[in-house]
Design brief:
Elements lengths: L5 E3 L2 E5 L2 E6 L3 H15 L10 H20 L5 E10 L2 H11 L4 E5 L2 H4 L15 E10 L1 H14 L3 E2 L7 H5 L4 E4 L5 H5 L6 E12 L6 E4 L3 E5 L4 E4 L3 E2 L9 H14 L7 E13 L3 E9 L3 E9 L5 H17 L22 H6 L2
Parallel strand pairs: 1-7, 3-8, 4-10, 8-16
Antiparallel strand pairs: 1-2, 2-3, 4-6, 5-6, 9-12, 9-13, 9-14, 10-11, 11-12, 15-16
Helix pairs in contact: 1-5, 1-9, 2-9
Bound molecules: flavin-adenine dinucleotide.
Length: 357
C-alpha cells in the first residue's frame, strides 16, 4: 500500500514509509516525483544496457511513448518528424551513435532532399551540408509540466511554494530530500562556481500552423512545432546571466539565421518569446549523500540537477535513477556507466548573486 506525502517545492510525498521532499517544480523535480511513484508501484523498469546518457535518453523515450499512447497531446507529448543539418559529418554521426537505434525512421538525407529544385531547404548547392531525418517525441514544457503536476496531485502528492535556503532546513522534517532545483541545485549543494554555469537561451513562439517538421541547423538554429504554435530559436550563451529579457538583437539574430534556411519564416507572426537559463554542468549530477540536520538528525539527499540543454530529453531517465536512490532499489543497471563524481567547489559565482534574487 502506497502512502503519499511527497513535498514538491515543489512537492512532498510519503512512499513506503519514507517522508520525501522534492525541491523544484521544473521538469526534473516533477519527473523525479513521478518516477518515485512509478517505481514504488512497479519496481521492474528495465532497459537495455547503455552508456549513462543513452540510458537516461532511453528511459525518457519509453516514458514519452507510454504517455503518447495513453494521453496523446493532452500530456504535452507529441510525435514529430524532422531534420538536422550540419556541415560537420562527425557531429551528425555522433547523433546516430547516441540515439539512431532508439528513435524511429533514422536515416541520412539524400542529395535531392538537401539541394536543388526538389530540396526541403534553401541551401546553396556548393555547401558541404549534411543532414539526417528521424521521428521522435517532443514534450512541450508549458503542457508537459502541468500534466505531470496534475497527475501527481491526483495521486495525493502535496505541493507548496517557498524558497529553501539550505537542504538541512528540510532534513529536520524529511527522511529524503531530492535536490532538483535546476541551476540553483548547485547552489544548494555547495557545487556552484566550479561546476555549474548558466547557459542563456531564447525561444520565440511563432504562428506557423503549416510547419509540421522540426528543423535544426547545428543545434542552435532551430524550429520545433508544438501543439498550437512553433518554437524558433535559439542562442546558447554559456556563462551569460543577462539580459534577462529578449532583446531586439536576439530576435534579429535568430530570425535572420533561420530565414536563411526557410525563407517562409520571414512572413510569420511572433506570438511571444522568452529567455531561460539552462542549468549547465560538466555532467548531470545524480548522486546520494547522507547529511546531518542541526548536527543531530541524519537524512538522505538525492541530487538530480545539471541537465544543461537536455532536461526534457533525459529528464525522466535521470529521474528513474534518482528514484532508485530514493527508494534504495538495486542499481545494477547503472554499474560502470556513471561517471566519477566531480569535485565540489562551493565558491559563490557572480551569476548566483545576479540570478538568485
Ligand atoms: C531556450 C531553451 C531551450 C531548451 N530546449 C531544450 C530542448 O530542446 N530539449 C531539452 O531536453 N531541454 C531543453 N532545454 C533545457 C531544459 O529546459 C532544462 O534542462 C530544464 O528546464 C532543466 O529543468 P530543471 O527542472 O532541472 O530546472 P528548472 O526548470 O530551472 O526548475 C528548477 C526548479 O527549482 C526551483 N528552485 C530553485 N531554487 C530553489 C530554492 N532555493 N527553493 C525552492 N525552489 C527552488 C525553481 O523555482 C524551479 O521550479 C531548453 C532550455 C532553454 C532555456
Amino acid at each position: 500500500m502506497l502512502r503519499l506525502s511527497l513535498l514538491l517545492l515543489g512537492a512532498f510525498l510519503t512512499v513506503n514509509g519514507l517522508r520525501v521532499a522534492v525541491i523544484g517544480e521544473g521538469v526534473i523535480g516533477l519527473s523525479t516525483a513521478t518516477a518515485i511513484l512509478d517505481l514504488a508501484e512497479k519496481e521492474n523498469i528495465t532497459a537495455p544496457r547503455l552508456g549513462n546518457q543513452q540510458k537516461y535518453g532511453y528511459d525518457t523515450f519509453e516514458k514519452l511513448a507510454t504517455l503518447w499512447r495513453e494521453y496523446g497531446g493532452l500530456s504535452g507529448v507529441q510525435l514529430v518528424s524532422g531534420h538536422i543539418l550540419s556541415d560537420s559529418k562527425a557531429k551528425l554521426d555522433s547523433q546516430r551513435v547516441a540515439y539512431g537505434s532508439l528513435v524511429y525512421n533514422y536515416r541520412d538525407l539524400t542529395e535531392p532532399e538537401l539541394f536543388g529544385p526538389t530540396s526541403l531547404f534553401d541551401l546553396p548547392r556548393n555547401t558541404t551540408t549534411h543532414g539526417i531525418h528521424y521521428t521522435a517525441y517532443t514534450s512541450e514544457g508549458l503542457r508537459f509540466c502541468p500534466f505531470l503536476k496534475k497527475e501527481l496531485m491526483a495521486k495525493g502528492v502535496r505541493f507548496t511554494q517557498r524558497k529553501i535556503q539550505s537542504l538541512e532546513e528540510l532534513g529536520a522534517e524529511f527522511d529524503v530530500v531530492v535536490n532538483a532545483a535546476g541551476l540553483f541545485g548547485g547552489v544548494l549543494a555547495g557545487d556552484d562556481a566550479g561546476n555549474m554555469t548558466p547557459i542563456r537561451g531564447v525561444l520565440i513562439r511563432v504562428d506557423a500552423p503549416w510547419h509540421k517538421h522540426f528543423l535544426y541547423r547545428d543545434f542552435s538554429t532551430i524550429t520545433i512545432p508544438v501543439i498550437d504554435s512553433v518554437y524558433m530559436g535559439t542562442v546558447k550563451q554559456e556563462g551569460a546571466y543577462g539580459p534577462s529579457n529578449v532583446t531586439f538583437d536576439d530576435i534579429q539574430d535568430i530570425t535572420s539565421r533561420y530565414v536563411e534556411l526557410q525563407p517562409s519564416f520571414k512572413r510569420v507572426h511572433m506570438l511571444s518569446s522568452f529567455v531561460g537559463y539552462r542549468p549547465g554542468r560538466k555532467q548531470v549530477r545524480v548522486e546520494k549523500q547522507i547529511r546531518e540536520a542541526h548536527g543531530t538528525k541524519k537524512f538522505t539527499v538525492v541530487h538530480n540537477y545539471g541537465h544543461g540543454g537536455n532536461g526534457f530529453t533525459l529528464g525522466y531517465g535521470s529521474a528513474v535513477h534518482a528514484a532508485r536512490l530514493v527508494l534504495d532499489l538495486p542499481l545494477t543497471e547503472y554499474e560502470g556507466i556513471i561517471p566519477e563524481p566531480l569535485s565540489m567547489n562551493s565558491t559563490v559565482a557572480d551569476w548566483v548573486r545576479v540570478l538568485d534574487d
